[in-house]
Amino acid sequence: MTDDRKKMHIKSVICDIDGVILRDNKPIPGADDFIHSLLERDIPLLMLTNYPSQTPKDLQNRFAAAGINIPDNLFFTSAMATAEFLKRQEGQKAFVIGEGALIHELYNAGFTMTDINPDFVVVGETKNFNWGMIKMAARFVANGARFIGTNPDTHGPNFSPACGALCAPIERITGKEPFYVGKPSAWIIRAALNQMGAHSETTLIIGDNLRTDILAGVQAGLETALVLSGVTRAEDIGDVTFKPNHIFPSVAEIDLI
Predict the structure, then answer these.
(1) 8 Å CB contact between 50 and 183
(2) 226 forms bridges with which residues in the sheet?
């Protein structure tokens, strides 16, 4: 397929945030121009993050502080995808380990947050994780509550514990693995496509992490573009059996759209 035909083929874009657009809350060179080029050409765009602890408005403010101004409806988080997933399951009561953004999404989806016979144990991210939460969550999961994690990431910047790390002791105690909604699960990609009204066959996902962004795109049937401005290095590509369709130094060099 020629470059011109590839450009015609791609009609919408899903883009990761950290390592692709921002690094340490500062824009990666060329990221601002890339985003605004898409918006000026009316190409549907969704900024997708595994982090469940910020609302779209929070993310909009974070971008604005970095000098990138886009509407809050262009952000989609693992908390939002988790709420969408749970709406399709039986049960309306959840024991939640997480912060306001996750609780907000679940509340808006019609869920009751409770520590009495919950249908689900939902784990996101919080700085207040403690022994009591582990004990209660493990007891609920052992007694039949379905175990849901917003994302499998073990840590964020500066090795701050993330959802996967918080799920680990509950899994070890109960022997039950959580269902992770976030990347690399195809579920969050499907939810993002639904949010955009887009189709997998004509959507490009851009990410800096082979094992989350790119694997999610591969599993959901999207065109994939790896940028080497974040987690993954060029020498890492040979370590996995799947490969991105395209590799660029950064979003500034992407010429597929």
Answers:
(1) yes
(2) 207, 247
Q: Give Cα 148 distance to the centre of its chain.
A: 15
**Residue 9, pLDDT score:** 83
The reply to whether 18 belongs to the active site is: yes
Question: Tokens 């993330």 belong to which residue?
Answer: 162
Is 16 catalytic? The answer is: yes
Model pTM? 0.94
CB–CB of 183/222 below 8 Å? no
Regarding beta strands 22-23 and 26-27, do their DSSP bridges make them parallel or antiparallel, or are they unpaired? antiparallel
Two tokens, residue 247: 């590799």
Instruction: Using 70 as the pLDDT threshold, list the residues of the chain that sit under it.
Output: 1-8
Nearest to 201 by CA among 180, 227, 222: 222
Q: Which of 3, 4, 18, 72 is catalytic?
A: 18
| Mean predicted lDDT score pLDDT of the chain | 95
Contact yes or no for 161/127 (Cβ under 8 A): no
d(CA 136, CA 121): 10
Q: Identify the active-site residue in 4, 16, 119, 208.
A: 16
For the sheet containing 223-227, what is the strand order?
75-77, 45-49, 12-15, 203-207, 223-227, 246-248
Q: Count how many Cα atoms sit within 13 Å of the Cα of residue 96 in the half-sphere of its side chain.
A: 27
**Angle between the 78-87 and 100-108 helix axes, to the nearest 10 degrees?**
30
Taking Cα atoms as reference points, which of 197, 195, 230, 200 lies closest to residue 212?
230
Both structure tokens of 154: 């073990």
